[in-house]
Amino acid sequence: MRPDDEALIVIDVQNDFCPGGALAVAEGDAILPEVNAMLGQYPVRVLTQDWHPADHTSFADNHPGAAPFSVTAMAYGPQVLWPRHCVRGSAGAAFHPALKTDAADMVIRKGFRSQIDSYSAFFENDRSTPTGLEGYLRGRGVRRLMLAGLATDFCVAYSALDAVRLGFEVAVRLGACRGIDLDGSLEAACDRMRAAGILLL
Ligand code: VGL
Ligand code: ZN
């Protein structure tokens, strides 16, 4: 077992991000054996779940004429318009059936406000509205984080970057992550994480 002050954060291992899902990440389900093994090794285990209302503004089909994967300007900055995914309560929003969810201490849902997306497990995309995860981790005495999940270049990277900004020591297990890679976003995200002092393993 890892030291008491370490937490594993498993990002968005949901059906819609796995092959066959609405926003499938290539080989998204290939990370399951490693993620499940890691869930047995950390004293604090958190799962995140992308959880959108049907009228969420990150869905391209809520913007007449907009193409999926195009970028629009929101009050809080640029926002990619995604195919409709992870609608709360839908089969696509459920965790992948092979994920060992019983091992989790905490499940945090994000992206539940219609007007703002939330890639990060810590803050919504305005980078200031908290999800509450920081308080949970500090309350349990956590100082170091290991991240894994989907997608490397969006929810994993945003979570990792927010976590270092909050003062946590952060590592990402790249073998237990897969990326979307929109216009080179995977390499850009890895560069930003490295520059921020995040250990990419
Ligand atoms: C994600 C795009 C939209 C992710 C979530 O989990 O990386 N990406 N919503
Ligand atoms: Zn989403």
Write a brief caption for the model.
The chain is α/β, with parallel strands linked by helices and 201 residues long. Helices cover 20% and strands 22% of the residues. A hairpin with a 2-residue loop joins strand 3 and strand 4.
Structural description of this entry:
This protein is an alpha/beta fold. The chain is 20% helix and 22% strand. It has four helices and eight strands; from the N terminus they run βαββββαβαβαβ. The strands form two sheets. A six-stranded parallel sheet has the order 5-2-1-6-7-8. Helix 3 (152-165) runs parallel beside helix 4. The protein starts with 5 loop residues before the first strand and ends with a strand. The mean pLDDT is 97. Bound molecules: pyrazine-2-carboxylic acid (VGL) and zinc ion. Residues 50, 52, 58, 85-86, 111 line the site of zinc ion.
The side-by-side strand order for the widest beta sheet comes to 5-2-1-6-7-8
Strand content: 15-25%
How many helix segments? 4
Spatial separation of the terminal alpha carbons: 18 Å
Major sheet details: 6 strands, parallel
Order of helices and strands: EHEEEEHEHEHE
